[in-house]
Amino acid sequence: MNERHIFTSVTRIADLESGGFDIIKVPRSNWADADYVVTRVLGTPSARYGLELASGRIVEPMEGASVIGALGTRAATLEAVGSWKDVGEDGEMDMLTGAGLFGRATSVAHWISPMTTLAYVGHVARDGRTLGMGDFVLPVRPARLSVPVILLVGTSMSAGKTTVGRTIIHELKRSNLRVVGAKLTGAGRYRDVLSFQDAGADAIIDFVDAGLPSTVVAKPRFDAAMEYMVSRIMANEPDVVVAEAGASPLEPYNGASAVAALDGHICCSVLCASDPYAVLGVRTAFAFKPSLVAGPAANTQAGIDLVAELTGLDAVNVFQAASRTRLRAVLDDALGELLG
């Protein structure tokens, strides 16, 4: 009987479940970013990260389970840092995200429970050739961006970008616009763009579709992935794009490159911030003036007032009806006739 494997969400672009594959051991010196690998769970799995399947469903792995994911790098300011490049010859690695981003953790926040430890079993292969995410990127006709973009950026991870994005998409769909939701940078997780779909987006695109497990890669490689994502976005013929840049523009996820690629098409920008002083930091360091501020920095009127005092920017709490009225006004002003 064939062993049952858990296919994490970074495999969602591949046909591994239906198409079959072999498992071959590859010398550590020949590993590469975005390689698909088979691992086995060692010890007690972490309570922090359940495994996110290709469907987006979360499951809890058991000791000894076989899990398939991709080699990659994470550099999260609030949780964990690690990379496949730090994996030793013994092949022991960590589950850097529940989406199946595999590497060796090198810096972990003290409040994070121990990560799920994995043992390398082998690389996914067919006909003697190893397979990676890049082997399953769908072809697309090259296209340039030609529609307005509503950009979401943050001061860090967990700054509320996805929640704000869902709210904006919901508002845009009330005007019967065709909306593409995109996550351009970050570490592989399906739940964020899936939530855009749940909010009504007509299509969703992210960097996993472009063959990246995370966007902590060299700039030329990210730029090529960005061109691909833009082409995929335009193939869906949107009226407007709601684009999230995961983490913040100053972190090593290529957020600045993503924002630069959208230059000339950003009609509205929302800075999601962890606190008012973080707004000031990004406003100063990145010379970025958003249309609105949202996220935890705007949880209370005191935070909203402090954002205004420090930066002169408007902040809104999207959970409050009155603030959504202000958000709608900003969207109306940015999109004009599109909203009717």
Description:
The longest helix has 17 residues, at 219-235. Helix 2 runs parallel beside helix 3 (191-198), helix 2 packs across helix 8 and helix 6 (276-285) runs parallel beside helix 7 (301-311). The chain folds into two domains: 5-136, no CATH class; 149-339, 3-Layer(aba) Sandwich (Rossmann fold). It is globular, with a radius of gyration of 20 Å. With 340 residues, the chain is of the alpha/beta class. The strands form three sheets. Strands 15-14-16-13-17-18 form a six-stranded parallel sheet, sandwiched between helices. It has helices at residues 16-19, 161-173, 191-198, 219-235, 255-261, 276-285, 301-311, 321-335, and strands at residues 5-7, 22-24, 36-42, 51-52, 58-59, 66-71, 73-75, 80-83, 92-97, 101-108, 117-126, 129-130, 149-154, 179-185, 203-206, 240-245, 266-272, 292-294.
Secondary-structure blueprint:
Layout: E1 5-7, H1 16-19, E2 22-24, E3 36-42, E4 51-52, E5 58-59, E6 66-71, E7 73-75, E8 80-83, E9 92-97, E10 101-108, E11 117-126, E12 129-130, E13 149-154, H2 161-173, E14 179-185, H3 191-198, E15 203-206, H4 219-235, E16 240-245, H5 255-261, E17 266-272, H6 276-285, E18 292-294, H7 301-311, H8 321-335
Parallel strand pairs: 1-6, 6-10, 13-16, 13-17, 14-15, 14-16, 17-18
Antiparallel strand pairs: 2-11, 3-6, 3-11, 4-5, 7-8, 8-10, 9-10, 9-11, 11-12
